[in-house]
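Many groups now describe folds with learned vocabularies. In that spirit, our science desk offers one protein's residues alongside their backbone shape tokens.
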Amino acid sequence: MEVSFELLGEVRVLVDGVAVDLGHARQRCVLAALLVDHNQPQSLDSLTEKVWGDRAPRQARSTLYGYLFRLRQVLGGVPGAVIGRTAAGYVLPVDAGTVDLERFRALVERSRSGDDDEALALVERALGLWRGEALGGISGGWADAVRQGLDRERWSAVAHRNDIALRLGRHESLLAELSTLVKRDPLDERLAAQFMLALHRSGRPAEAMAHYQVIRRALADELGTDPGPRLRELYQQMLVGEVAPPAVGRPPTPRQLPAPPRLFVGRDDELVVLDGALARQGGSLAVVGAGGSGKTALALHWAHRALDRFPDGQLYADLRGFDPTGPPTSTSAVLLGFLGALGATSLPADVDGQAALYRSLVAGRRLLVVLDNARDTDQVLALLPGGTTCTTLITSRHRLTALTASRGVPTLALDVLPDDDARALLSGHLSPQRVSAEPEAVATLLGHCAGLPLAIGIVAARAAAHPGFPLAAFADELGEADGLDGLDTAELSTSLRAVFAASLRALSADAARLFALLGIAPGPDIGLPAVAALADVPVPRARSLLEELETGHLVRQHVPGRYRMHDLVRLCAAERARDEETALGRVIDFYVRSGLAAERALYPHETPAAVFSDQPGPADDGTALAWLVTEYTCLIAAQEAAVRAGDHPAVWRLAWALDTFQRRQGHLHRDQITVWRAGLAAADRAGDLDARALASWRLGAALARAGDVDEASRHLHRALTLSREAGDPSGEAAVHQSLAWVRETQGDDRQALHHAVSALDVLGTLDRPIRHAHALNQAGWYAARLNDLDQARHYCEAALSLARAHADRDAEARTLDSLGYIAHRAGHHDKAVAHYELALTHFEDVGATYDYADTVERLADAHAAAGRPDRAREHRLRALALFLQQHRTADADRVALTVEADARKRGNPRRGS
């Protein structure tokens, strides 16, 4: 007798090909619930919610009993279809091979290995199991959520099938279906690439390139982003006319998981739930519970146990949702970290673009994403993978109800450890013999810990430090502390304060003082030199005190030389801080002096009077850059602390310390605007004229880069006035140069030249040779744009002499680019080519990739004007590739249109199809 349970269409049971009468829709919903999670017990409450949602009738339980009774009767003669009952609920323990959904998944998994011919046959067999919409004939919230998930699995398998078929050269047979699919999901870049490839290989390259423009506009309109790197690369290949075979190389494999907990006990039921919820590709789960209850330990223990399920890697982020000293980790910061781990080299400036690129890079990959310590639903939404192959595990102290409602992500509530498991954890930290020798003392200790793993670890560290002391002595100490306010429950608060108090009494006086001061330190973690500044002790002494705190599990050295506290421990520390204003001032001053030194290494040409510092700095700009990357969040937090403390000079000096770093990291425009708004507010409050001029200038420049030219112009004109009042000609010149750039973006080259010449006039009176060279070049550029070529050449030749005399390759490269532009406009195209090629060499030397791309495009124009269309086409394609990498959509579109127009004029034959 052949039995088949079917969910991929109308829910039904077949015996020797004949359907069994399963009754009405709600009764079939009960069967579907048992089959979707076959072999997993379903409680009556769970079944009630799946059948009726939040509209269960008063007699729901008795009605369910009736459904289950009738299903048992209907299935009584079906082998392997016995609905059983366990202590955990009802279960239908069927063979996975008899359920079409499980057969579908198994076939798809098998198709991911072996040769393409066999893989294609397997995935087509899998797709052939679908008879329509999954769970057909069943309605309700649970059914809809399951249906959506299964639909994503189905279309992931379709995309997988398409990749294999294209590799086998079956593009023409796919065209009709792909045309339908891209209309069904117009934002799916993988489908778009498949459709374009099929069109191109079927002799329809123009339609393929036209579809790229369709999805590019759709992504820009709907998501505010550009196509991902794979789609852009395919488009570039089509422009060249030589499309490579589908890539089979693998992207980087991230391995970001922290180490698993050294000791882990119990949680057997929770691990079963995690296995069940995350067994399927695309599964998600949120573990929620009180602070210190072991959510992170559970997540990491499970993740390391399940590593073989995620061959494409693991991403991890601590979202710092409840850090008492600062805001949660920004979505952008997490996305940038993920994108770097996934191999992205050119990053969008905005969060929406970063999220879209992230979803593109993880699509089709079997990845685990762990989002630890989430504050709320909003913090994690943009971090959820969009495909069906990634698994997401979230931890939070909040219930994340909105995440369940909007995305169907289930939650697992984590309670404190039961007594037996708490005792086992304590035994693991100490020894079973020591724990069993004093049962009454152990009971007292565990009673104070209230089943909280964090508290047990701290108590155990105290006892382990004194192996000869009786545990009763530590139990007596715990009764002497008062309650810790502001935590999850009164009971946990009392227990933790008692635990911390006992641990602190065991510390030396200096270590206890440092513990308290670490509670007020700005930032999510702290480096050893900053600790020394905070405590006003030498670095070796700071290291020794930190080792004492590490021994007591009160701090953790999460990377060499950097220390972090659990946020509950940090709350306790902050409560005990004394003389915190003085200590906070010391560590803020450390960040100010060190930050200004790093900034000076990046930009050595001039330091404004408002931020002068004689602190010795890093030996080179590479060291400075690495320090700024490491300390970036702490510098931001230090500025916020300075704002709260009313330390106005520190606020604007920290803004300057971050300025060059933020400009070079173009994706940090928003942060730069934020720090300079704070800097300007502090300068206004302090009434410091130099600082007001500086902050107005830098805020205006940051706003201009972000595209807000109107507000930028207002701040820059204010900066101009203030610089004149302060008698600061260097600052006045700098503002004129920024205003010139703003006027250029507004299309007013004449006013741009006016500001450039004004800057030049001012700098001519100062001994600032490199700044003078840049100003000469800027004036020459605008004169050339206004077709005053003789004056433009005069300016730029003078700039080139200065740049070469002072060996500044950046200034030399920019000036050579301008001279190439001047020669091109004068009709001297070979001379223009020579200038451009030398400029490119220097741009490459200094790593100025943005300017390099612009010069490549101008080099192409010069070759075209000189009658060398092949060279022009070659360089336009280089420029196009660079613009796409830099997400410069308008520039890329302009060059692409030129390439396509040139190809049509020349009647360029299609190649590589």
Q: What stands out?
A: The radius of gyration is 33 Å. The CA atoms of residues 109 and 317 lie 28 Å apart. Residues 419-504 form one domain.
